[in-house]
């Protein structure tokens, strides 16, 4: 038996797992893809059925053709000599493959049509045929399957949330597998949605976070659920229907939230490390160290409990003491930064106010403003910005660098971060985005419905406005998807007419 046989053990099933796309806007924008990804991957039924030919005849030196009426017998001509052959039990002869390809394939790839005869099955204790893929479990337990090779069974399980399909020979969404009860299999029943008299049944998809896992959520298409997962350190946010950093999701366990916050913090510090002042201060410290090691006549400071370390100065937010070789040195953070009580020597001990609050710790040094900057260091609203809430300035050593938040986000002077515009009181979000959410639909009593509705963004094919509770947020479709105004969802880009608007 040719080794290649085992290799075509249908990797396509596992491609389905990759649709658990972990992008931060994953949930809302992927829904279309889930629906469409099956297209164009149906078993090949377009085989040319050649007129039956008597065996033993070769029209070409090297060729294969089916034995009349049989789906697994064929004739192989090698250098003009014909020989009748039989596919292994469980496989079928595909007349349409190139001569240099092994012609016996799994049933999902070969249509027998009128070639209906097959050799008798040669079952083993583990397998009904020598070769093939077979579903295990039942309608509530849909993910297990067995690959039979020479009558020996190897058991596998689909990626979490997917069910084995005997017809497509792949792991599929459970709602697309006939003999799988998706609700029982996933242990989730899609809640019934109240039907509004005026608007009828709600359109599109609905999402629900899993009760016991903030990174897991269900997508309901009609009444059929699919389970999806957020990526590392992200959790499912019910307001935006997206996966966001887990520290912003109260439903996530505290360890995960702390971990997500730590990762964000580390990313930020990495950035801060690149800043000029850091380099400068490090040099300064190095110089002091050199002096100290050369001059051993120092007096041990009572402040220095340890040989090297940082110590706070009461009633000051930005002064601190640095101990080097038990020698205390009065230090002060650069203007605009605060001394971080958590700092560990020899790490840089000064941080931005949004990360190192001052509350209850006294005052900082007097500001040293420049023409461009209110403090020597920090992130500040840009006086150049008018309606553009996303523009801000970063000050380094009193020099301003104009910066812009990622598209659709506004600079929040309170947190010093880029934020949703509706979270920034000083930002006129509608002017900034150039978009106002239409009034949300109302229920029978006139109360606005708590729904998320999406709208096209100008002429752009990939961005869209997502409106919840009257607030607009600019979101992007995941790669390969485009926004479909008709369904209000991101679907595979090839199904959206983007014209020249890319
Ligand atoms: C194919 O057949 C030709 C003529 O019948 C012969 O000369 C040649 O050696 C054969 N080749 C092989 C690989 O058998
Ligand atoms: C599901 O089916 C697999 C394979 O037959 C079996 O090993 C497993 O125990 C079943 N699980 C449940 C919960 O029935």
Automatic annotation (TrEMBL):
Repeat in keyword set: yes
Key word Signal present: yes
One Gene Ontology MF term: chitin binding
Keyword field: Chitin-binding, Disulfide bond, Glycoprotein, Repeat, Signal
SMART domains membership: ChtBD2
PROSITE patterns according to UniProt: CHIT_BIND_II
Pfam family, one: CBM_14
Residue stretches making up the Chitin-binding type-2 domain: 55-114, 124-182, 187-254, 301-360, 370-429, 434-500
A cellular component term, taken from the record's GO annotations: extracellular region
Signal peptide: 1-17
Protein name: Chitin-binding type-2 domain-containing protein
């Amino acid at each position: 038996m040719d080794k290649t046989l085992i290799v075509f053990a249908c990797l396509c099933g596992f491609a389905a797992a990759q649709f658990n796309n972990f992008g931060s806007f994953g949930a809302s924008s992927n829904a279309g893809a889930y629906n469409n990804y099956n297209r164009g991957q149906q078993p090949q039924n377009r085989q040319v059925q050649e007129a039956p030919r008597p065996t033993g005849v070769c029209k070409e030196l090297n060729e294969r053709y089916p034995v009349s009426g049989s789906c697994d017998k064929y004739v192989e001509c090698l250098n003009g000599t014909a020989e009748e052959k039989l596919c292994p039990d469980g496989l079928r002869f595909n007349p349409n493959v190139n001569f240099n390809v092994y012609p016996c394939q799994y049933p999902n790839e070969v249509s027998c049509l009128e070639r209906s005869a097959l050799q008798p099955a040669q079952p083993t204790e583990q397998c009904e045929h020598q070769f093939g893929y077979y579903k295990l479990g039942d309608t509530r337990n849909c993910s297990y399957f067995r690959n039979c090779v020479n009558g020996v069974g190897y058991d596998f399980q689909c990626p979490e949330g997917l069910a084995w399909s005997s017809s497509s020979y792949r792991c599929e969404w459970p709602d697309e597998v006939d003999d799988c009860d998706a609700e029982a299999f996933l242990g989730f029943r899609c809640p019934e949605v109240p039907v509004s008299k005026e608007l009828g049944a709600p359109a599109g998809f609905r999402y629900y976070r899993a009760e016991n896992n903030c990174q897991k959520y269900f997508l309901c298409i009609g009444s059929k659920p699919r389970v999806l997962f957020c990526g590392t350190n992200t959790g499912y946010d019910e307001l935006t229907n997206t996966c966001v950093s887990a520290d912003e999701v109260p439903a996530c366990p505290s360890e995960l939230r702390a971990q997500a916050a730590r990762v964000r913090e580390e990313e930020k510090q990495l950035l801060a490390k690149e800043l000029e002042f850091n380099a400068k201060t490090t040099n300064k410290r190095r110089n002091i160290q050199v002096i100290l090691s050369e001059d051993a006549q120092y007096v041990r400071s009572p402040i220095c409990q340890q040989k090297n370390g940082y110590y706070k100065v009461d009633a000051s937010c930005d002064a601190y003491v640095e101990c080097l070789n038990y020698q205390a040195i009065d230090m002060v953070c650069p203007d605009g930064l605060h001394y971080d009580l958590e700092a560990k020597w020899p790490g840089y001990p000064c941080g931005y106010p949004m990360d190192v609050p001052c509350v209850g710790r006294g005052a900082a040094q007097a500001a040293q403003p420049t023409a461009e900057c209110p403090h020597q260091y920090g992130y500040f609203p840009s006086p150049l910005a008018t309606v553009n809430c996303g523009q801000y300035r970063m000050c380094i050593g009193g020099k301003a660098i104009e910066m812009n938040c990622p598209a659709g986000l506004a600079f929040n002077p309170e947190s010093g971060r880029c934020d949703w515009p509706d979270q920034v009181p000083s930002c006129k979000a509608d002017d900034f985005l150039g978009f106002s959410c239409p009034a949300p639909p109302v229920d029978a009593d006139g109360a606005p419905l708590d729904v998320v509705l999406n709208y096209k963004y100008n002429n752009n094919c990939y961005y869209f406005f997502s409106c919840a509770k009257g607030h607009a947020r600019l979101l992007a479709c995941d790669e390969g998807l485009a926004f479909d105004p008709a369904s209000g969802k991101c679907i595979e880009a090839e199904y959206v007419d983007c014209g020249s608007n890319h």
